[in-house]
Amino acid sequence: MRFRSIVILTGAGISAESGLGTFRDRDxxxxxxxxxxxxxxxxxxxxxxxxxxxxNARRQNLIEAVPNAAxxxxxxxxxxxxxxxxxxxxxxxxxxxxxGSEKVLHMHGExxxxxxxxxxxxxxxxxxxxxxxxxxxxCTAGRMRPPRWVVRVMGIGxxxxxxxxxxxxxxxxxCGGARGRRRRRRRLNRRASGAMAGPRRPRASGPAGRAGxxxxxxxxxxxx
Length: 224
Description:
The chain is α/β, with parallel strands linked by helices. The chain is built from 8 helices and 9 strands.
């Protein structure tokens, strides 16, 4: 069977080749900064200058970076694929888009966007921010911040401003929740087989067991 739909997952490794720092490597950003100080609403409330300095440095680093051969290859794959295509990235940079990718979903938001804490507007922003920066929509000062924060949970909550540290469940949703359905189906089958006498019931069939026919998920440089 030839798959008609492709989902590709990329992570920090693909952008590391362009000179962008990773987060969890031995010398990654989280070895130099406390995540709770620079990537949470509580950290921003305590020290907005530190948070702005952290993201200003990341933003400048991104502006100076250029897409590499892997970004270009994925953009070429999208152009040449005649079925459904989605590139899901854990990265906050725009290197996929600059390489020519169009169908991109950013799991953790985008570094070159900022959110106003007063009116909620999100705007593209390439310059530095400070605690006195004003919102271009409502003109409020001191409320501009990154569009998303990190929360230490596995799963997706109702907060649209929250990102997730650990993305297994996000990928599961991107793939239609098939992984979770298979796990639940196996648990139900085990319980049923232990509770009844005689031959085991046939395993459930249908869409839950045919996720591979819906989505082909490939990890490309997904190490963080």
